[in-house]
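Reopening: C-alpha cells for the N-(aminocarbonyl)-beta-alanine complex, inputs below.
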Amino acid sequence: RIDLDRLMGRIRALGEVGSLPGGGVCRLALSDADKAGRDLVSGWMRDAGLAVTVDAIGNVVGSRKGETDGPMVLVGSHIDTVATGGLYDGNLGVLAGLEVIDVLNDLGLTTHHPVGVAFFTNEEGARFAPDMMGSGVHQGALSLETCLATAGIDGATVGEELQRIGYAGETPAGSVTPRAYFELHVEQGPVLEEAGIAIGAVTGVQGISWTEYTVAGVSNHAGTTPMRLRHDAGYVAAEIAVEARRIARDIGGDQVATAGAIELDPGLVNVIARSARITVDLRNTDDLLLREAEAQMAARVVELEKSEGVTIAARSLARFAPVGFDEAFVSLVAETAQKLGHTAMRMPSGAGHDAQMFAPNCPTAMVFVPSAGGISHNVEEYTAPDEIAAGANVLLQMVLSAAGR
Amino acid sequence: RIDLDRLMGRIRALGEVGSLPGGGVCRLALSDADKAGRDLVSGWMRDAGLAVTVDAIGNVVGSRKGETDGPMVLVGSHIDTVATGGLYDGNLGVLAGLEVIDVLNDLGLTTHHPVGVAFFTNEEGARFAPDMMGSGVHQGALSLETCLATAGIDGATVGEELQRIGYAGETPAGSVTPRAYFELHVEQGPVLEEAGIAIGAVTGVQGISWTEYTVAGVSNHAGTTPMRLRHDAGYVAAEIAVEARRIARDIGGDQVATAGAIELDPGLVNVIARSARITVDLRNTDDLLLREAEAQMAARVVELEKSEGVTIAARSLARFAPVGFDEAFVSLVAETAQKLGHTAMRMPSGAGHDAQMFAPNCPTAMVFVPSAGGISHNVEEYTAPDEIAAGANVLLQMVLSAAGR
Ligand SMILES: NC(=O)NCCC(=O)O
Ligand SMILES: NC(=O)NCCC(=O)O
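Re-run output (same inputs, fresh job):
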C-alpha cells in the first residue's frame, strides 16, 4: 500500500514551485519554474536511490535495479504545466511513480525487472508545439533536431532553453524501449465524476490535430473604410473560431474544437487588423471523423480567403492519430481496481498523454482518477486525497505484476 | 500661396520621429516618440514667432497677434498616431497651419484677429480612450479630471504620462473659445479618389461608439471538456466580432463596425480561454441608426451570456453623436477650392476629428484631401504633394477670410 501522506506532501511541495497568487501553478516547459520543479523532483529521485539520467531532449529517468538487467518497467508522466495549471495534471503520475519506488524501498523488495520513473519534457505543448514532445522524441515519433529547433510562444527555442536551464542531457534520447509503460493521471474531464466511478481503465487516446492560422489582411481606418473594401484579419480570425464551434456541433459525438489563442496586430480599437494568429485544436476518437473536421476547416479557410480578400497560412502544430492501449493491461487495470475494492470503468482519454507515445512500441496502460467538476488546465483543478490513494495503489499493483517479485 | 517645399520638408522631418523600420510611424499619444514630435513642432512654432502655451491636458497652442485682442482664428489637428500610422493623418493639419503662419510672416501681414495653430493631445484614442481627448477637454465636452485618470492599453495614465514627458502645462484647458476653427486633414477613406475630386468640403462627422467587452468564462481542457460543458470566453469574443460584421451588413448604408482588438487569457492552444477582451467600434452618420446598431449588439451580448454561461461586462470607451459643421463655412470651402481651380465636393467624415469638438461652440470647418487607395491607419498612407498644396492653399484662404486683413 502506498503512503498517502508522503505522496500528498510531495504533490503540495511541487505545487509550491511556480505557484500563482490565487492558487494553481505556472510551470511552462523549460521556464525557470520548470527548472526548479525538475531540480526538486530529480533530488527526490536521488534520495530514493535511483540512478538518474537526463537525455538530449531533457527527459529525466530515475531507475532502480532489478534481479535481471533487461528493459525496465517504466512509470512516467510530466511536471510541466499550462500557464494556469493545477497541482495534479502530470505531477500526480510522476510523484505516484516515485511513491511506488518508495514502497519497494520500504519493503526492501528487489523486483525481477528494473523499475524506472520518468518525467518527460513539454508534455503540455502550451509553450512549444507539439505536445508530448519529450516522450515523442523518446519513442522516435518526433525528430530530436526538429524539436530542438522549435520556437515557443515567446520566441526562444527548445534547444536554447534546455541549455539555459541545464537540462540538455548526455543520454541519447530513446535509447531504451521499456518492457512496459504505465501512467497514472487525473481524468481532466467530467466522465468519472458524473458516473460516480473511482478508476478509469483508459482504452486509448483520441486523435489530436492542432493548426495555427496566420491571416494577412490590410490595416485601415475603422471609421472611413466602407465594409465592402475591407480585408479585416481580425474578422477572419473570429470567423475561424466560430467555424470551429460549428464543426464540433455538426460532427457531434466525441468531436471537440477549441480556438484557444487569437492575437490581432496592431490590436487597436479603431484600426482594422492587418494580421491575426489563431490556433484551432480539433479532437476525435475516430480518425475518419477527425479528418472530416480538418477538411471542413480547410474548406472554410479557402472560402474566407476568397470572400475577404486575405491570405491565410496554415501550419500544423501537432497531429497525432488516435491510439489504443494494450488490451490485456487495460483489463488488468479494471480488475486490479475492483480487487482493491474500487469501482472501475473503461474509457478513452480526451487529453493527450506521454503514454500514447509508448503504446506503439511496448505494452502500455493508463489509470485515471476523477477530476472535480471535470476541471483541468485551470487553477481550480482538484482530485481528493482518497481518490489519489486509490489510483496510486492500482499503479503499484500494475508495476508489481509487470516487474515481477 | 503656401510654400510646398517648406511644408513637405516639415512633414518628412516629423515623419522621422518614431519612424518604423518598414516605413510609417508609431507615435502613440504621450509616448517618448510623441514627446520628441511635440518638442520638434513646438520648436518650429517658436521659430515662427508664435507665443506657445501648453494646457493641463497637454494641448499646445501657438498664437500670433492680430490688430485686435479678441478670440483667435484657430487652425488645429494632432500629431499623435496609431501604432502603425502614416505621415499625414493629423500631422498635415498642424503643419499646414504652421505654413499659413509662415506665409503671413513672409508677407509681413497682420490680420485683424489673432491667428493660432494647435495640436491636441491623443486624438487617435489608440493608446487612451476616448479619442479627441485633448480637444474634448479644451472645448468642455470631456472632464479634465476623468481624462487625467484614464489608463491606457499599457496601464499608464494620461496624467502620469503628461508629467513624465513634461507636457502637463499650466494653462487652464479650454480657457479660450476661438472665433473660428479650421482643420485640414487627409480623408482617410476612398471617396475623393474614387470620385476624382481634389477637395472635400466636410459637412460633419459621423457618430462614433466604442465599447469594450470583457468576457468571463471558465478555463478548462480543450481535449477533455465536452462541448456542452464549455464556458469559452474566446468563442464568445469571436461571436461578438462576427456579430459586429452582421450588424453592419444588416443596417447597411453608412454603417461600419470593427472589432479591432481581441485578447484571450491564457491564450494557449489547448486551454479553453477563461477570459477575453474585445473592442467594437460602431459608426453611422445617422444617430438613430447608430443607436439601433448599439441595441442589436447589446441584445446579442445578453443572448451570448445566457447560451454560453459566461458573464460579459460592457464599458463605453467613447460615444460621440454625429456633428454638423458651419453651413456658411462648408460652402466657403467648396467655393474657395473652385476659385483656386480645384474640383470640390461636400462629404461627411468617417473618422473622428478634433474639429467636431469645436463645432458646437464656434463656426467650424474641415478641408479634406484625397488618401491614395483610401488607406489610413496604415504605414502606406499617402497623399500626393500637389494634393497637399491644394488643401493647404484652401486652408490659407479660409484663415485669411475669417481673420480679416
Ligand atoms: N494531459 C494533458 O493535459 N496533456 C496536454 C496535451 C493536450 O492538450 O491534451
Ligand atoms: N482622424 C482619425 O483617425 N481620428 C482617430 C479617431 C477615429 O476616428 O478613430
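The first strand of chain B starts at residue 51 and ends at 54. The CA atoms of residues 190 and 374 of chain B lie 4 Å apart. Marking as resolved unless the reporter disagrees.
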